[in-house]
Amino acid sequence: MLGLPSTTEVGRRLPKEAFYRNLKLTPKQKDAFVHGVERIEILHSLKESTIHIPAGEKVEEIMVVSIELRDEGAAETIVDEIAKANKHRLVFLCQEPTGRASLAVRAQGVKFGPWTQPDQLALAIKGDTLDAVWDAIVSQVAFGDAGTPKMTVEARLALTERIAALERLVSELDTKCRKAKQIGKKNELFAQMRKAEAELKQARKELG
């Protein structure tokens, strides 16, 4: 599955009860496990003994976890809570009741790839250590590529978050500017918006 070597296959089901009984969850988070999940299974384990790539300074093993959902709205909560509670780096194959699927990782927040048919999803193993393999996987999920030499995956993720924040700021300032009745206030807001737009343009240029 996902184009990964057969040597990495695990196929071990995990009882979802183990998560919501042992994790400190809010009632809403617990409900996501109880009613939003059908099945959780470890599909693959990427480590030195299965892919012959040595551990890095941070990553010794990468696991691919399948989550069959009853409620697609529970996906982000489930991914977030399981990833936070696990010392391994985890890639999630989330499958909706409709049949669509998406890959997800937790890296500076939960990141999902596009939702599509399961047979359209694949992961490429790239890198000379498991640290590099993990970075490449995060890039594949979050950006649709295996990384860029110009910028680390952490920097790309941070820049993406900054772009999203600037987009929200520009939208908010535009709304306030249109509603402002005093000329002085309107001009002040317009100047702030133009500054934010310039920063947004530069950030998008840096991201490429």
What labels would you give this structure?
2 domains, 46% helix, alpha+beta, 208 residues, 6 strands, 6-stranded mixed sheet, 19% strand
Distance between the termini: 31 Å
The strand line-up of the biggest sheet is: 1-2-3-4-5-6
**Which residue ranges are poorly predicted, with pLDDT under 50 across at least 5 consecutive positions?**
none
- Give the domain tally: 2
Relative helix content: 40-55%
What's the pLDDT, averaged over the residues? 92
> In angstroms, what is the radius of gyration?
21 Å
Beta-strand share of residues: 15-25%
Number of helical regions: 7
What is the count of β-strands? 6
List SSEs in N-to-C order. EHHEHEHEEEHHH
Structural class: alpha+beta
Task: Please give a quick description of this structure.
The chain has 208 residues and is α+β, with helices and mostly antiparallel strands. It is 46% helix and 19% strand.
List the helices and strands and how they pair.
Elements: E1 9-14, H1 17-22, H2 27-36, E2 37-46, H3 48-51, E3 62-69, H4 75-84, E4 89-95, E5 101-106, E6 110-112, H5 130-143, H6 153-179, H7 183-207
Parallel strand pairs: 3-4
Antiparallel strand pairs: 1-2, 2-3, 4-5, 5-6
Describe what you observe in this structure:
The structure is a single chain. The protein is α+β, with helices and mostly antiparallel strands and 208 residues long. The chain has 2 domains: 6-147, no CATH class; 154-207. 46% of the residues lie in helices and 19% in strands. The chain is built from 7 helices and 6 strands; from the N terminus they run βααβαβαβββααα. Strands 1-2-3-4-5-6 form a 6-stranded mixed sheet. Helix 2 crosses helix 4 (75-84) and helix 6 packs antiparallel against helix 7 (183-207).
